[in-house]
Design goal:
With 84 residues, the protein is mainly alpha-helical. It has two helices and two strands; from the N terminus they run αββα. β1 and β2 form a beta hairpin. The longest helix is centred in the first third of the chain and has 27 residues.
Length: 84
């Protein structure tokens, strides 16, 4: 992936994150009963889902910024606890 593509993805993710945050704040403040992002209708019941989407977008932004700075992608790993 070249730097131009990374910059394009960063701009896209930042715009999406701004919309997600605006929706979350509008629903939390209680000023609205539902919120629309493009073609999606969100209600207060969707707050947990929105939190997860915001976290995922922030993680992806962090990863793209690290790539742009010359770093490497983070590797996922899992720890499996065992009871011997």
């Amino acid at each position: 992936m070249d730097k131009t593509e990374i910059r394009a993805r960063l701009a896209f993710r930042r715009a999406a994150l701004e919309k997600l945050r605006a929706a979350y704040l509008a629903l939390v403040d209680g000023g609205v009963k539902n919120y629309t992002i493009d073609d999606r209708q969100l209600t207060r019941l969707d707050l947990d889902k929105l939190k997860k989407e915001i976290r995922d977008a922030e993680d992806e932004l962090d990863e793209l910024e690290a790539l742009l700075a010359g770093g490497k992608r983070r590797r996922a790993f899992a720890v499996v606890p065992r009871d011997w």
